[in-house]
């Protein structure tokens, strides 16, 4: 449905419906997502992406992707490529080609000259420290720059000379001429252009002056005739300048609307601090599975569908909000429970010997791939006398009667196989169990059980002779505190979790040796795991995506 009669589900959509009903912009809806290519996108960006693309789609509109590439010091083509990959991975395609603020540098320069000619901008030779002092403070009016009353002709000459590269970095800026007593400090003659003799990743050495965000962003929206400029709440105070520039320049009246940014427990969503984690070697890179970046979450195994569902289900609000990691993981499980095949892997193996199973004999047993998907089919598992089971599935002395796993004189079922009876165990000099000895009931095969033996416990296992070695990376949150940025008296680095990554060597059923990068499995009774790009042929590396259980009660 893409008309004004579409039900509005939040305050942004209420504004859009009203605009459509009033025939504003001839009933056209056009949004945009404008990231700065100075890092990877994170979970907070996912919220903005979903809001912009889904809102436009609901009302038959379009969404542009525009790189806010106005700072050559921090931006790289690598980041541009990853941003595009992340958005496509999330399931969205933007209108036309990727756009860049740098596409509009000539037009922005012309608009700056227009402001100068109208007496709305001037070249200031004050230092950055002096400009900061001139701004005053909340409730304290600022003071005019000594260069504020230059004539438009003199300002144009100076600005053109700035453009020509005549002056060094930091020696001059172009400021809007608004009101040094304005209650919004951002309107106290904000800086619009600065000198930066640095090559740009797209324009090379063509420019030595670059627009600041507040000038490039709004005017780029107008150049693209964006009808609804949807952005996070941190830009609320920038809206006044956004609107002032539209009126002063008499350009297309894009409308800025702010929504609350989304924060998630145990994640940080500051690109500067994410970069610090990379630079300090706390993580292996921007795509480390412990990072809040979309590349990291993808590598960990979070499905794009789950992230979209999470962003949509948490809603659109006017107040910043903190979301539970449990809810995000719940959304991940919803998708993986439906889609992932069930395989068996033993993470902490101990040998189990079925003493009455004939030596040298083996057989193939059938096991279902996914009980949630009848189309998933079955596979064959090798079974013989010696197996591996989880060390934690055996106790020398059970603590209570409700213990249904292996213990002396206990019966359990092996998944898709037989019921076994525990006869005893062997241990080393330190009391560590080295082998569990059992007997099996030959007439208790799964699917054809005539033994009459009743059991309440079922264990996963792998055949010792055919088991393959698996490198498994077990992840916990990167931080020990759910909001590591909220402590004014402590550095967020103090909350880095030393146990956020533990690598183990596991045993898996033989089919796992052929698993491909990105393939996802539920390891029975363990969790959901995804094959990491570090895998090599015949030797996969698995990342723990999410455990089987959640405390989320939503």
Automatic annotation (TrEMBL):
Name of the protein in question: Glutamine--tRNA ligase
Renumbered residue ranges of the record's region Disordered: 133-155, 362-382
Entry EC number(s): 6.1.1.18
Domain called Glutamyl/glutaminyl-tRNA synthetase class Ib anti-codon binding: residue spans: 340-440
InterPro entries attached to this UniProt entry: Gln-tRNA-synth (IPR004514), Gln/Glu-tRNA_Ligase (IPR050132), Glu/Gln-tRNA-synth (IPR000924), Glu/Gln-tRNA-synth_Ib_cat-dom (IPR020058), Glu/Gln-tRNA-synth_Ib_codon-bd (IPR020059), Rbsml_bL25/Gln-tRNA_synth_N (IPR020056), Ribosomal_bL25/Gln-tRNA_synth (IPR011035), Rossmann-like_a/b/a_fold (IPR014729)
NCBIfam families: glnS, PRK14703.1
GO biological process: glutaminyl-tRNA aminoacylation
Every tRNA synthetases class I (E and Q) anti-codon binding domain range: 458-532
PANTHER family: GLUTAMATE--TRNA LIGASE (PTHR43097:SF5), GLUTAMINE-TRNA LIGASE (PTHR43097)
Domain Glutamyl/glutaminyl-tRNA synthetase class Ib catalytic intervals: 29-337
GO CC term (a single one): cytosol
Gene3D superfamilies reported in the protein's UniProt record: HUPs, Ribosomal Protein L25, Chain P
Family: Belongs to the class-I aminoacyl-tRNA synthetase family.
This protein's UniProt keywords: Aminoacyl-tRNA synthetase, ATP-binding, Cytoplasm, Ligase, Nucleotide-binding, Protein biosynthesis
